[in-house]
Design goal:
- Chains A, B, C, D: GO terms for molecular function: formylmethanofuran-tetrahydromethanopterin N-formyltransferase activity.
- Chains A, B, C, D: Belongs to the FTR family.
- Chains A, B, C, D: This is Formylmethanofuran--tetrahydromethanopterin formyltransferase.
- Chains A, B, C, D: Its main location: cytoplasm.
- The structure is a homotetramer of 300-residue chains.
- With 300 residues, chain A is an alpha+beta fold.
- Chain A is elongated.
- Chain A folds into 2 domains: 152 residues, 2-Layer Sandwich (Alpha-Beta Plaits), CATH 3.30.70.520; 137 residues, Alpha-Beta Plaits.
- In chain A, the strands form 2 sheets. Chain A has a 15-stranded mixed β-sheet that branches. A two-stranded antiparallel sheet of chain A has the order 13-14.
- In chain A, a hairpin with a 2-residue loop joins β9 and β10.
- Chains in contact: A-B, A-C, A-D, B-C, B-D, C-D.
- The interface between A and B is large, with 80 and 80 residues.
C-alpha cells in the first residue's frame, strides 16, 4: 500500500481509511437533581451495562453536564443518550428512567430533544396510582408523581432521532500506557462535543472483535487477531506495525453524521497529542455495513 | 399500636418491625486493572442498570475496593456482586463480564468466591479463537486471551451462593435533605460491610412501590401511597408521621443472612446519627414473601 | 425592622440587606495536562490551604474546566484563581505554580488573563539551569524547561487585576441538612459563573466569625454567636429565627463586581430552590469595610 | 558499574542503591463528617499546598479513609498526616484545622495518634468565646464549639512523632505514559500502607531538583539535569538509560522507618508490574543528609 500512509498529525501516522457508521435510533434524556452529584449518580446508574448492543440492551452514556441555567427546573443536570433499534429504544428509555432515575433521590426527568422523528411515550404517571397531577415546569408540561422522597417530576415524551452509530478510530501506541492515556485524552475531548457519547467503559474499547470465529463455529464473534499486538508474530496478516504494544478503540454514537464527524476529529487530534502514539486507523466493513463514512483524512 | 414505638437510638424512634428478606442467587467477581481508577470504571459499567430485578436484568453493585495485596495479580481491584435468579445470574455474570470488563482497558477478572453452591462457567476463552492459552496467576488457573489492548486474563469459573435479598429500612426525615444525607451516611457505613451491596442509585431508593395498583389495573406496581409525604393528608392510612417530609429506603442484598443483618445494623445506626432523622421503619409483607426477618430491634 | 422581611424567592425570605465586598488582587492560571484527571489533581493541590487570608497564604479555588479546544496547547485544563494582597499574590502565584504544578505530571501553565493591571513574573525558567529554551505554543511565548517527566511548558507572565472579595450570603435551614445541601447547590450554580471562586472547603463556610472576642482578649476573631443556632436561647441578640437549625455561608471572590454580582444571584436562587431553606441573609460591616454592596434584592 | 544492575523484579531492573530518609516531625489528624464525601472535601482542602517544605508550609496528604466503625464519633472520616519541622508543625496543625476543617460543614477533629513524643495544643475552644463546653465523645475529652453550622467537636491535643521523610524511588519508563501510569499504580499501592503519605500532586513528582544551580547562582535549587530524558544527549553524566522517555518520582513521608520501608516495597513492586517500566532507582545524597537508608534490594 504505497500511498496509504501518507498523512500525519503531530508526527502520528493516520491511515488513509475510514470508520463506517450505520443508522441507530437515539434518544436524549435530561436528569436533574438537587445537586450535581446526585444527578450524576442517577445518570451513571441509568447508562451502565450499555456498551454495545451485541450483548447489552442498548448503548448509552452521559453526553454532558447541563448547568442549572439551562434546565427546565433550574437545577443541575446531566444529559444522557441511549442508542439502539427503535423498538428496543422505547423499552430502554422507559425501563432505565423507571428503574434508575425514578428510584434515585431528588431527580426529575426532561426530554433532551435529540429529535422528533419518533416520540417515545414514557407514561410513568400511572405509577402515581391516581395521586399524580399535571404540572408546568419551566414552561413544559410534566407530571408530578408522589413518591417516598417527595414528588417526582417527569416530562413523559422523549424525542428520538435516527442518528449514527459506529463512529470509531483505533489508537496504536509504542507502549500499552501510551495508547491508554491517549484513549483517555480522546474521550476527554469527545466529551465536549454535543450530541455524542462514547458508550464503552471509560469510553474505551480494549477488545475488538470480528464477526464469527475461525476455530469455534458456535461463536458469533471472536477476537480480531489482526489487531492483537501480543500475537503479532503468529498472525500472518497482522495489522500491527512493528513496535506497537497496544491498540485501544474509541467508539462513538451520535445524534447526527455531523456530530460524529466532529467527535472523530477532536478525538483523533487529542490522541495524536499524547506522546507515544504512533498510528491511528479506523474500522470498516468495506462499506457494506453502513452508509456513513468518516474518513481519517477529514480529522486533521 | 401502643407498644410499637418503644425503641430509640440516638433519639430516633425505631418502629418495632422487621425487614423481610428472601433468597437470591449471588455471585462475586473481582475486577483488577492497572490502576484503581480503571478498575473502578469497569466495575461501574458492569454494575449499572441493576437496581431491581423488577425491571433490570439483575441487581448489582460494587461491594468493596480490594487492595493490590489481596488480589491474585497484585493489582488494585474492585469486588462487585450480582444478584438475581439462578438462570439469570449465569447469563448476567457472563454478559456483564463480556461486555463491560473484557472491553475495559487493562482489566482482569477473578472469582470473588461468594460461595460454591453453584459454579458459573464463563467460558470467555473461546473469544480467543484459538490464540488463548492457559496461565497461572497468583496460583490460580486462568485463561489469557489476546485482545487489542494486550492479554485479558480471566478466571472462568465464578462461584455463586444462595444469598439474601430484600434487606431494607426506611429513613424518615424532618426535611427532605435530612433523610437524603442520612441515606447517604447509611450507604457509606454499609459499604464497609463485606458481602453486601446497596444496588439502587447511590445506594438509595426514592420511590417505594406496592404490588399492583388500585386505580390502573394494568400496572404491576405503583407508588406506595402510605409512605408518600406529599399526599399524607389525602391518604387515610398514611404511615407518615406528622412533620416527616421525606422517606428514603436502603435496600440491601448480601451473601448471607449474617451479612445483611450486619449491614442493617450499621446502616440504621449511621442514619440515626444524622440530625433531623425522626423515625426508622422497615418493609415486609407480613412474612409471606421470604423466610428472613431482620428486626429493627436487633439493629441497636 | 418592620419592612426588612419584605422579599421572597420561591417561598424563601430574603432579608433586605447586602454583602459587603472589598478590593482584592486576583490572578488566574490555566493548568493543562495530558488528561482532565491529571489537570484536576494539579489544580486541586495548587488551590488547597487557601480558604481565607486570615490564616491561609491566599484564597484560591478552581474557577472552571477549560476544554482542550480553548487552551493554548489543546489539552484539557482547569483555570484556577488566586486572590489576596498584591505582594502576597506575586509570591503565591510563583510558589503554587512551582510547588504544585511544575511538580505535577504532564502539566503546562498559561496566563489565565484575569486582567493586566499588574503583571506577575513567574520566572520559572531559571529552574532549567541553562537547558531551558523559548517555545511558542498556540501563538504564545513560553519557556520549555527540561524536567524528569519531559519538558515543562510555562507562560511566565500571569496577569492580575484588582478584583472583589467578600461576596457572601448566608443560608438558613429548617434542618442542618437542608442548609448543607442548599449550600452545595449554590456552589454548583456559582461554579458555572466565569471569573468567580468559592474558596472554602467544598465552597461552604460552616463557622462564621466576628472580629475580636468578648471574653478572650487575645483572640483576633471568634465565633459569631448571633448566627449560632445551638446557642440561640443564650444569645439575646440572636439573628437566628425560630426553627432554624443551621446556617451555612457562601463566600465569593471574583475578578470584577459584575462577576461577583452574577455569582450572588445564581447562588442565592439555587439555594432557595432547595426544600427546607427558610431564609437568606448576607454579611456586612455597615459599609465600613468595602466599597462594594451586593444587595440581596438584586439577586431575584 | 558492572555490579550495580544486578537485580530485577518482574523484568524491571532495580539499581543497587537506596533512598536516603531524614527525620521529620509528623502529626496525624482524623477528620470526620456527616458523609464520607464531606470528610474528603475537608481533608483535601487541609492537605493542599503541601508538597514539599522547600516552598510549602508543610508536607501533607490523606493517609487513609477511616470507616465510621473506627472513629470516635462513629462517622466516616479521613486521616491526614502533616510533616515538617517541630515548630512549623505546631503552627500548621493549628492553622490547617482552623482554616480548613473548622470552616468545613459538619466536620469534627480527633487526634490521629501518630505518636506522643510531642503534644500539639490546638486550643480552638477559645474560638467559642465562652459558649464552648467540654464534651466526651467516644470516651474522648473534646470541646464543643457553637458555630453557624451547629457544634464543632474537636479534640484539642494532637500527638506528634519524630517520623521519616524523604523515602523515594524513581520510575523510568519506555514512554512517558508507562512511567506515569506506573507512578499512579505505585501511589495506589502505597495508599494502603498505614502511617504513610505521598505528598506531591496525585502522589507523583515530575520535576526532580538538585541543590543550587550551575548557571544561575541566585537559585537555591534547579532541575536535576542528569535525570532529564529530553536533554539526555546534552548531559555527559546523564543517568537516563537509552530508550527511557520519562522519569517520575514517588516521595514518601511516614510515621516510622518501618512504615516508609513497607511503602517503598509495595510501591516499587506495583510500579514494576506496569508494562513499559524499564528501571527503578532511588535518590540519595551519599548518606550525608539523613540517617535512614531504604535499599531497593529490600523492596523485592
Amino acid at each position: 500500500m504505497p500511498n496509504s500512509y501518507n498523512m500525519e498529525f503531530n508526527g502520528v501516522i493516520l491511515e488513509d481509511t475510514y470508520a463506517e457508521g450505520f443508522p441507530v435510533w437515539a434518544a436524549r434524556v435530561i436528569i436533574t437533581a438537587v445537586t450535581k452529584e446526585w444527578a450524576y449518580k442517577a445518570a451513571t446508574e441509568a447508562t451502565g451495562f450499555a456498551t454495545s448492543t451485541i450483548g447489552c440492551p442498548c448503548e448509552a452514556g452521559i453526553e454532558r453536564f447541563v448547568p442549572a441555567s439551562e434546565t427546565p427546573d433550574n437545577r443541575p443536570g446531566y444529559a444522557i443518550m441511549l442508542c439502539c433499534g427503535k423498538k428496543a429504544l422505547k423499552e430502554q428509555v422507559l425501563e432505565r428512567i423507571a428503574e434508575c432515575v425514578l428510584t434515585a433521590p431528588t431527580t426529575a426527568v426532561f426530554n433532551g430533544k435529540a429529535g422528533s422523528e419518533e416520540i417515545i411515550p414514557v407514561k410513568l404517571h400511572f405509577f402515581g396510582d391516581g395521586y399524580e397531577s399535571k404540572v408546568v415546569v419551566g414552561g413544559i408540561n410534566c407530571w408530578s408523581i408522589p413518591i417516598m422522597g417527595g414528588n417526582f417530576v417527569v416530562e413523559e415524551e422523549v424525542g428520538a432521532i435516527k442518528g449514527v452509530a459506529g463512529g470509531n478510530f483505533l489508537i496504536m501506541g509504542d507502549s500499552q500506557m501510551s495508547a491508554l492515556i491517549a484513549a483517555e485524552a480522546a474521550v476527554d475531548a469527545i466529551s465536549c462535543v454535543p450530541g455524542t457519547i462514547t458508550p464503552f467503559p471509560g469510553g474505551v474499547v480494549s477488545s475488538g472483535s470480528k464477526v464469527g470465529s475461525l476455530k469455534y463455529k458456535f461463536m458469533g464473534a471472536s477476537t480480531n487477531e489482526k489487531f492483537c499486538p501480543t500475537i503479532r508474530e503468529k498472525v500472518p496478516e497482522t495489522e500491527i506495525p512493528e513496535g506497537v504494544k497496544a491498540v485501544y478503540e474509541i467508539v462513538i454514537d451520535g445524534v447526527s453524521e455531523a456530530a460524529v464527524k466532529e467527535a472523530m476529529k477532536v478525538g483523533v487530534q487529542a490522541a495524536c497529542r499524547v506522546p507515544g502514539v504512533v498510528k491511528i486507523t479506523a474500522g470498516n466493513y468495506g462499506g457494506n455495513l453502513g452508509p456513513f463514512k468518516f474518513h481519517l483524512k477529514d480529522c486533521i
